[in-house]
Amino acid sequence: MQWAVIFKKEMVEYARNVKWIWVPMVFLLFGIMDQITTYYLPKILESVGGMPEGAELNIPIPDPPAALYMSISEFNMLGVMVIALISMGLIAGELKSGVYELVLSKPVKYSNYITAKWAGLSLLVLSSVFLGYLGGWYYVNILYGELAFSTFIVSFLIYTMYILFFITISVFVNTLVKNPGLVLFLSIALLIAITIITRIFGHILSWSPGHLSSYVNEYLHTGTMTGDMWATMATTLAIIVLLLFTAVTILKNKEL
Amino acid sequence: MWEELAALNWALIAPLLVIELILIVVALIDLSRIEKANGPKWAWVLIILFVTGIGPIIYFIFGRRQ
Amino acid sequence: MSLIEVKNLSKSFDGEDVVKGITFELTPGKCVALLGPNGAGKTTTLRMLAGFSKPTNGTITFDEQSLSSDIRNYIGYLPQFPVFHNWMSGKEFLIYVGQLSHLSKSEADSRADELLDRVGLTDAKKQRIGKYSGGMKQRLGIAQAMMNRPKLIMLDEPVSALDPIGRREVLNLMREIKKDATILFSTHILNDAEEISDELLLLHHGELVEQGSLDELGNLYDSGKIILAFQDNIPADMEEKLNKLSHITDIEFKKQSIEFISSDVIASRAEILQLAVQNDWPLTKFEIAKTTLEDLFMKVVNQ
Predict the structure, then answer these.
(1) Are A139 and C121 in contact (CB under 8 A)?
(2) Number of folded domains that form chain A
(3) What molecular functions are annotated in GO for this chain (chain A) (predicted)?
């Protein structure tokens, strides 16, 4: 009941500050722009000219899985930045501005407060990522060749874990520091650190969430879920639960 | 060159333009509705309209924070 | 029976003691002023009671704590500078915090209307809070503190930042609330404390230097000051006559009056009135001066 009240308040807020419009639109843009520009790049270069006579344009046309993965690459770069920007004030902003004094002087369970905000943000971001990824899949089918809808859906579900993982990192950092700018910096730094560590020690840390993006790529090409993929998703889920639990404990014991 | 461009399939590119248009319109409406922007409003109008592609996004992220 | 019992409550930030072991009880139905100069530890004390700040030492016990361990079920809190979700309307915000306090949607809705009416915001209830004036926000802040029908309402400097009209409105409102709940409010303004409170907690440098009702404190610090005022000029032999009386010190002559301190007010009163009759003094006033809160405050703070 109390959880639903906070969740609903987050939804209304996202509607009033037009996040429900611009975030999906931005992810749609990220999701389709590479497919379009890559497809037209040779034509555009040709028409602009400047190529020496007889030189051959050799830009390989990606196959459908690679073409769809271009959406994921954009999400991993620009998308992550946008997610970090919209989540940096989720809790830290309320602590800094002082709204928390009115909200948390009510008998609000800290676990409700954090998980409802986490769920609201996740719904907004995942809907947006889905829309963008769907747009990307649509263009892949038109421009690069057919790719099964089921492959698209399963790859999205794998990627969902990665997005949730990053959102949870940001929510966790939100309870650590009060300064939204610092939250932004720390959550991105943490994600980069995990990616680098996974790249270096990947052979040992075969279940690290840092593998999720490359698993999306692998799945798009092979169409099979490996044991490592399942294990990584399970590990990620466990880390998400653990981070949320820790965030609740931190906020509960925090000197506000 | 123009013939080449005309050969582009505009039906494929139109969605990009539509998204951009939606973002610009929503940003302008939102800017007119909020009490105070992060900086002078007229500057945001310029950014939304003339920073190609990402003007409205810049506004949503940095312009309307309170 | 006390509503809340605070024992030996202390708080230090980075080794600096802000609140130094204060002990007090709050009686149900009273309006208690937490009075003290800026930096005395008033806000820190209130924030510990509201649960935002963990005491370094000491205990806070609510008499109904056996019912639920969450003290926030019984309190309403208004910080010194309340910040709202400015995108909500006043009524939306009240319903939101009401539901957070486990009221149903319809209960919260009717309670919100009732309180908006009580704090005089009915006309503005659909307006966005971002457009409210300072006084309106303060009144909405009081309304939100009352949504869950708390046993104890804590207000941190509720009137200090308001203009005279806003101040008057909020003080009247507090007088109303007194009927339903115990009020603990902090202030550094003597008049506000004097005007509305039944009891005082005098805080200075993190220590509770005095506590009690206004009358009790007044008696405790009675100065023994006596004032005589005369119709015309002071009779010439006054000084000589007064000097002969015991108990009297610190005689101060003014144009048409004399002030002095007596160590035994009752005895001095008899002697002086007798002298006045015998010598036919043109007295217009004989006063045993009450200690004002300001005297008390200065006295305590300067000790």
Answers:
(1) no
(2) 1
(3) ABC-type transporter activity
Name the A residues in 131-190 with CB < 8 Å from any B CB.
135, 139, 142-143
**Are the beta carbons of C235 and C222 closer than 8 angstroms?**
no
Instruction: Spell out the SS3 assignment of chain C.
Output: CCCEEEEEEEEEECCEEEEEEEEEEECCCCEEEEECCCCCCHHHHHHHHHCCCCCCEEEEEECCCCCCCCHHHCEEEECCCCCCCCCCEHHHHHHHHHHHCCCCHHHHHHHHHHHHHHCCCHHHCCCEHHHCCHHHHHHHHHHHHHCCCCCEEEEECCCCCCCHHHHHHHHHHHHHHCCCCEEEEEECCHHHHHHHCCEEEEEECCEEEEEEEHHHHHHHCCCCEEEEEECCCCCCCHHHHHHHCCCEEEEEECCCEEEEEECCHHHHHHHHHHHHHHHCCCEEEEEECCCCHHHHHHHHHHC
Q: Which residues of chain C have pLDDT under 70?
A: 1, 64-68, 218-223, 291-292, 303
Phi/psi for C202 (5° steps) reads: -100, 115
Contact A106 C84 (CB under 8 A): no
pTM: 0.87
What is the rounded distance in angstroms from the CA atom of residue C62 to the CA atom of residue C48?
A: 13
What is the least distance, in Å, from the CA of A184 to any CA of chain C?
Answer: 22
Query: What is the pLDDT at residue C29?
Result: 87
> Do the Cβ atoms of B8 and A40 come within 8 Å?
yes
C184 at the A interface (CB within 8 A)?
A: no
Cα distance between residue A41 and residue A31, in whole Å: 17
Does any domain span residue B35? yes
Distance between CA atoms of residues A255 and B13, nearest Å: 53
Asked whether residue B4 is assigned to any structural domain, the reply reads no
Inform me whether the C-beta atom of residue A254 falls under 8 Å from chain C C-beta atoms: no
- In this prediction, residue B30 carries a pLDDT of 92
Domains of chain C: 4-219 (3.40.50.300), 222-302 (3.30.70)
Q: What is the ipTM of this complex?
A: 0.90
Supply the range of the domain harboring residue B14: 9-63
